[in-house]
Amino acid sequence: MSNTDVVAEVRAGTKRYPGVTALSDVDFAVRRGEVRALLGKNGAGKSTLIKVLSGAEHLDSGEALVRGKPLAGLGTRDVAALGVATVYQELSLVPEMTVAENLFLGAWPRSRGALDLRRMRAEAKEAMARIGVDIDVDSPVGSLGSAGQQLVEIARAVAQRPTLLILDEPTSSLAAAEVRQVIDVVRTVAEQGVAVIYVSHRMDEIRQVADTATVVRDGRIVETLPVRTASTHEIVAMMLGTAPEAVAARTRRPSAEPPVLSARGLVSDRLNGLDIDVRPGEILGIAGVLGSGRTETLRALVGLDRPASGEIRLRGEAVRPGAFAAMLARGLGMTPENRRREGIVPLMGVDENIVISDLRRVSRSGVLDRRAIRQAARALIDRLAIKTARPGTPIGTLSGGNQQKAVLARWLHAGSDVLLLDEPTRGVDVEAKRQIYDQMRLLADDGRAVVFVSSEVEELADVCDRIVVLRGGRAVAELSGDEIELNRVMALAIAEE
Ligand SMILES: Nc1ncnc2c1ncn2[C@@H]1O[C@H](COP(=O)(O)OP(=O)(O)OP(=O)(O)O)[C@@H](O)[C@H]1O
Ligand SMILES: [Mg+2]
Q1: Which of 103, 144, 215, 365 could potentially form a cystine with 238 if both were Cys, beta carbons 3.0 to 4.6 Å apart?
Q2: Domain span at 172
Q3: How do strand 466-471 and strand 283-287 relate by DSSP bridges?
């Protein structure tokens, strides 16, 4: 391929933030019709590179160009006008507006000056159909859940008919079937000549979607290589800078203790007579496809939603449904699926975001103790290897995967007895995933109950002592100990009604 095919490039690009060099003398180019994966640990610099190419950030030195035009001084709108469409790692939709309105945010179709609602809806339907998704374009985006919102973001980017399509972890909250759809769309637009940059931590997905992969480590490009011939082991070693540790086979230990938390006959919008028992000393996995009621189950258990009927018991005692604060006070903790909207306070420090779950532990006679906050936070930052310049750095400036680890740290700080984790490894790199699994195991060994919701069946099958499969808002199957096998869980989760 000739150089005239280059759609976007960075030459000797360096980008610094206070305390970190996010990109260091980077050379990078992507060509027409190519799907390029960006791989690297959390905090390696992938999103920074993407933001530079979309005009959301500017280099301190070096040059970024799109179709030969330097991006210095251009904003995201100017760069979009050059044909760049970007799906950022954090969702950027307006929850109160409808899917159709979001799809054309800022560029609503008009006829004779007036907003053309009919055309907007028709084009929105077409855009959703193009990515093979059946979502009502009139529903407010906020009602969709993370997976639905991610699909809308992708549809929005594809609808712009870009020359360069940039996707930063577009599938982090999607399950296998939706991931398949996204891969198909990406392959189709690439065949039409669009250049695609694609970030994901899932190697199997990278293999299906990408032609070449660029590995980034500590802000530097390690290598660019063809995906098909490189082994996963080789690529992971490049990402980490060392050979990955061999993973020891685990013995599963389903707990025989009486349930610490149980629910009977929960009925709500998405739940349809759900029964579930959570036992101390085990990691309980919840599997199921999009819309099966995974998140709703956790929300009902922790009291964030009040089911229309049904009963919840904590340590044998009936609890009032919907009593979130009381549940937290009685030792429950939950990491939400959508950390941006529900999980973190972006402008507050990493330390403050961690200790917020239990301020008593870091107070003296009712007054917050700065040193105690730093100490508690530092210990957890080390334990989970959270990459942050300082404990007090605003959490919003951390890379996505590191924000996710901080949200988990919060509940480790709280010392909850029952921990409900909704997609805790979303956007987390291979090494960090291990660390999170290890923490879950430590908690279970310590007699706590861990409930683990994930759209990646592989990790459930890897980590859990017991797995409950949801379908249509009910628990339809349960596997325990040696019964847990990847193929079996998968088959159960996706089986038809
Ligand atoms: N606005 C910002 N202010 C300060 N530091 C930042 C900012 N944005 C990114 N950083 C830092 O730059 C480094 C690279 O971050 P980046 O988001 O590019 O990582 P990433 O490879 O996308 O990681 P992940 O896989 O976790 O998304 C990190 O150390 C991060 O904390
Ligand atoms: Mg990122």
Answers
A1: 215
A2: 3-240
A3: parallel
